User: Which sequence fits this backbone?
């Protein structure tokens, strides 16, 4: 543990300059005011007392300041904890990765069967494939056939839009 000096060089120079200034003040005041012996002694006692008070204050503040610094230093405690660091390892050799690529087997697409007539069980009407209303029939009500005969047997009505001759 470090041992600190109680008086630094700056404090020492300050106290010496203060003592010299007090001696000069004493000699100047005795010479200018023509003081008696008893007055000279009281002035000297007052100057010595103020010098002692300043000396005590400088040293005391220095000790208090050092004590606070030492207390703060003592409050710090070293706690040893293991530190886990991620260590990155670089390899110069290339890394070979196996990649699974899906194999696509081409099959001939089955042709979608297109019907010539679309019927609706809800409205009891049938439409041609190209009619715009045939696309609006919901799948729940949709009936697909190639000929009109099925719809005529079931008594469906022809669409007035796609069968203009039926109006």
Assistant:
């Amino acid at each position: 543990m470090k041992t600190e000096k109680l008086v630094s060089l700056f404090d020492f120079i300050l106290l010496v300059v203060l003592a010299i200034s007090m001696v000069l003040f004493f000699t100047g005041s005795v010479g200018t005011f023509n003081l008696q012996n008893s007055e000279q002694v009281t002035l000297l006692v007052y100057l010595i007392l103020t010098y002692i008070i300043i000396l005590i204050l400088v040293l005391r503040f220095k000790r208090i300041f050092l004590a606070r610094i030492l207390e703060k230093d003592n409050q710090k405690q070293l706690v040893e904890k293991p530190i886990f660091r991620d260590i990155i390892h670089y390899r110069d050799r290339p890394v070979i990765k196996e990649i699974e690529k899906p194999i696509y087997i081409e099959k001939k697409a089955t042709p979608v069967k297109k019907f010539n007539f679309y019927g609706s069980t809800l409205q009891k009407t049938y439409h041609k494939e190209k009619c715009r209303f045939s696309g609006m029939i919901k799948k729940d009500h949709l009936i697909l056939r190639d000929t009109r005969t099925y719809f005529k047997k079931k008594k469906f009505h022809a669409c007035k839009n796609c069968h203009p001759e039926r109006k």
The beta strands are 117-120, 125-128, 142-145, 157-158. Helices lie at 9-33, 37-75, 149-153. The two ends are 114 Å apart (CA to CA).
